[in-house]
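Title: Prediction job returns without error message
Component: structure pipeline
Severity: low
Priority: P3
Assignee: unassigned

Description:
Job completed but the reporter wants confirmation the result is attached to the right record. Sequence as submitted:
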Amino acid sequence: AWIKITMAKVKIDKESCIGCGACESLCPEAFKMKDGKAEFKGKGNEKCLKDAADSCPVNAISIK
């Protein structure tokens, strides 16, 4: 099956991020935890990115 790779812009507000790891657990191909904060790896499919952003308890991830 083909996976749609998006050119969406993902922004993580490092000040808001509490390092819970929800984004990484839902979308490990796109997010990783580094120094206790979420970091975007630069790619991911749209559904995965949206699910991760929606799961963030402090809304630190925005996607455009």
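Comment from assignee: result matches the submitted record. The longest strand covers residues 31-34.
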